[in-house]
Design brief:
mainly alpha; 21 helices; globular
């Protein structure tokens, strides 16, 4: 029987209805349709208007893009279904509370802080995307690929307005985030489809070969970009959301699922968003690249800007502005929600709604600086590389702890604030492979999986060593 004080503390913790420090009860579980809307909305999103064109700037070929995206996104769905969702429905805990049981309170604070900040930066790039649409009626200058600072007061004011609205929605909790995604995702998906159709007409595409020849055998990368091959596309698209699937961040989402099979709903996000939407956005950019303005910029040895708002507006008018704005919202909402949960684990006395709103403000400030959006391919690779190995700790403990005679949730069982096995495993794996990336100029996403596997193996080895010393 729990002490009265413990019960009171637990009731206070769950007063928000988000179950930050307890398992989600059976009566609060949700059907697969709730997750379908969340993932379709989150991944058919504003950032897709950036990522599709950025593939073109990397000089990718038709085969590498189309087949590479089909394969890479399938691997991502498998990761969500058989790792994230499987573990989420087993324990029904947030990533942050589950890590606390394994790592100890002090160690997990550093992870939560890094996780929350990186998610805020990612959400900030989505706010940037929406701002490029809202700024059209104000004739606002659009950020360039090389821009890192805001280009004027109008830009700052628009970003602040959008960010505050998104923060308010995210602060209302998972139910509100899910409802917003379900309402908006059909509009966004329709917008992407229309953009793709209009772009095909503008490009005079009348056959599959015409469509294929848009990318053809590929080109040289634009100034400041690197060349993408088939494996660049496969690996990058697989690990674009590495922090969320193999990094286990979406434990916080799938803990509400009735069954692990809800993990298959991520396919809606991967193939509507990370396939159809990326291709549609790339087509919009292909249209722009034929314009006199873009040709002149290329002739000057610079990369033409990638501004989602104008690209969509030129294709489908005012509806394009609406689609880009909503697309930014539906992606930023759950990202800020995740960041809020990370910060709430650091400041448990504050309500989830308050820390989520604060996370939204951090994301809004980040959105003022277009560098996060304009360098999105590189930033996504980096944040996945940093966060994903921690997910290996949870995965390897879940599947292999019993086999190796290890104690699960060791920090909780032994009342440790600092589990050395976790820190040593992450630091060694991150340090070694990041050094290899810098030293030999290796594409960072290529090293995400080796880093993840190495971290999991090291965790088992260190745990075996330190746990045997204690017994």
């Amino acid at each position: 029987m729990k002490p009265i004080n413990s019960k009171i503390k637990e009731q206070k913790t769950n007063s928000s209805g988000e179950f930050e420090r307890t398992a989600v009860p059976q009566k609060k579980l949700k059907s697969w349709s709730n997750f379908l809307g969340v993932y379709a909305g989150e991944h058919a999103a504003g950032t897709e208007f950036l990522i599709g064109p950025l593939f073109l700037t990397a000089g990718v070929s038709a085969f590498d893009l189309i087949i590479g995206l089909l394969l890479g996104n399938f691997l991502a769905v498998l990761s969500w279904r058989f790792l994230t969702a499987e573990i989420a429905v087993k324990y029904r805990l947030t990533l942050y509370y589950q890590l606390e049981k394994i790592c100890g309170k002090k160690l997990v604070i550093g992870y939560n802080l890094a996780n929350g900040i990186l998610f805020c930066f990612l959400a900030g790039s989505m706010i940037t995307v929406s701002a490029t649409a809202v700024g059209i009626p104000f004739n606002m200058p659009m950020p360039k690929l090389t821009d890192s600072m805001p280009n004027g007061p109008t830009w700052i004011a628009i970003v602040l307005f959008i960010g505050i609205v998104i923060s308010i929605i995210a602060a209302k909790g998972y139910n509100t985030v899910a409802k917003a995604a379900n309402y908006m995702s059909p509009v966004i998906v329709t917008g992407f489809i229309l953009c793709g159709i209009v772009a095909l007409k503008q490009l005079n595409v009348t056959s599959f070969s015409d469509f294929w020849n848009i990318w053809g055998e590929g080109t040289k990368p634009f100034p400041g970009q690197i060349k993408y091959t088939f494996w660049h596309v496969v690996i990058w698209s697989w690990f674009a959301n590495a922090a969320m699937h193999i990094g286990m961040s979406d434990l916080s989402v799938f803990r509400f699922a009735k069954k692990a099979s809800a993990g298959w709903t991520t396919a809606a996000g991967m193939y509507i968003g990370h396939f159809m939407a990326w291709v549609a956005a790339a087509l919009l950019y292909a249209v722009y690249l034929k314009s006199p303005e873009a040709i002149a910029i290329l002739n000057q040895g610079e990369a033409p800007p990638v501004a989602p708002g104008p690209l969509a507006y030129n294709a489908i008018g005012v509806f394009g502005i609406l689609v880009v704005v909503l697309a930014g919202w539906t992606t930023a909402n759950p990202t800020i929600y995740r960041a809020g949960l990370a910060f709430q684990a650091i400041f448990p006395k504050l309500s989830t709604s308050k820390v989520t709103f604060l996370a939204g403000l951090v994301a809004t400030i980040a959105g003022i600086f277009p560098a996060f959006a304009m360098k999105l391919l590189s930033f996504v690779a980096l944040y996945g590389f940093i966060l994903a190995p921690i997910g290996a700790i949870i995965v390897f403990e879940h599947f292999f702890a019993k086999r190796f005679g290890l104690v699960k949730n060791y920090a909780e069982i032994k009342t440790l604030n600092f589990n050395k096995s976790v820190l040593f495993a992450w630091a060694c794996s991150f340090g070694i492979f990041y050094f290899l990336s810098i030293q030999f100029n290796i594409f960072l996403s290529f090293l995400t999986l080796p880093t993840w596997l190495f971290c999991g193996i090291l965790y088992l080895i260190f745990s075996y060593y330190f746990q045997k010393q204690k017994f």
